Amino acid sequence: MLSGKNILVCITGGIAAYKTCELIRMYKRANANVRVICTPNALNFVTKLTLQNLSQNEVGIEEFDVKDFKPEHISYADEADIMVICPATANTISKITNGICDNLLTSVAAAFSKPVIFAPAMNTNMLNNVFIKENINKLHKNPDYYIVEPESGFLACGTEGKGRLAALDKIFDKTVEVLKLTSDVQEKFLSGKKVIVTAGGTIEDIDPVRYISNYSSGKMGLALANACYNSGAQVVLITTKDFDCPYRVIKVKSAIDMLKVVENEFVDTDYIFMAAAVADYRVKDISKQKIKKTSDDEITLKLVKNPDILKEISSRKKHQTVVGFCAESENLIENAKDKIKRKGCDFLIANDISRKDIGFSSDYNEVYIINKDLDVTKISRQEKSLLATRIIEELNAQTRRVQAN
Fold first, then answer.
1. If one looks up domain 194-404 in CATH, what number appears?
2. What is the pLDDT of residues 278-317, one digit of tens each?
3. Is 157 an annotated catalytic residue?
4. Following DSSP, what letter does each residue of 168-200 receive, concatenated?
5. pTM to 2 decimals?
6. Right CATH number for 6-184 from 3.40.1260.10, 3.40.50.720, 3.30.420.10, 3.40.50.1950?
7. Annotated active-site residue in 38, 157, 228, 326
């Protein structure tokens, strides 16, 4: 998979920099062409000569070392198929996520429009710093960014904890995986298609300060929207969350709000992914004033059913493909099969919310795709960003098989 690929390895100033030498050798053994960029501080841990011998290419360090009348940061960005930042320090991550371009590496990152893999490595306290965590979370907003999570263990600072660079084979495997997925969607099979994705948990007001909602983070819906966008689609993301995306995002609040927007956008759409966790019920009479606490030990709220957006949209579809989602804590497959029959959608994607390693708020998920014939396809646990691409590939493949028959 890596043969003939152009991999740009970027090394920042962390003690784990020395490990990247072996990663370069792994890429070279797989017949990839490797170019290396170092921050000036990275040379405190590895030497330029070593990296040049391993990569068999010149090593980039200075931002304004211009050759052949072509700015170096644009040259590196144009030539590489993928960028691997290993190790990714707190400093470099923070610069990239805030658009700072003060060295060759960060300038290339700003100009890079293809996949980027980040392999963070830092002290545990730095990793847990509220601002560093916020910047790491920002990486997930870019559909082309992939993170190989740091591991727990003995750190160079002499402490135990999370922050050490992930195993090199994990970074290598992630590179292969991302390049394969990128290659698979090169055909842009959603090019010219309009795709709606709903995401996040709806919010149902009780009074001006209280509401009913759920634990949905919207991450799976965002990942699907990003994957569709990367496959050439005209994407509309309808969400209860604040997402900054390179396509249309419509912010909504309640189930009623979401239904209205979905109905407006549905007529000329081709695909809709109903990934939002829509509340089944809402408060019948929303109080215009804050409900005061009384001496009573109990309070009664009268709830009424919300509209079933998935069922409503499925009943109206003509040329559209409707994909529903099903979050279950028990009898996953049985409940999913029952739901697709009741809702009338084309596909249903089910996941187990009782598991702690996937689902709500997690960056990982594992799903089962059920079609109208009740055939089940499992996609094993992986990052939601990668899982989303696998989902649309599988749906595309199944749709083509049906059309061929």
1. 3.40.50.10300
2. 999 999 999 999 999 988 889 999 999 999 999 999 999 9
3. yes
4. HHHHHHHHHHHHHHHHHTTT-TTTT-EEEEEES
5. 0.65
6. 3.40.50.1950
7. 157
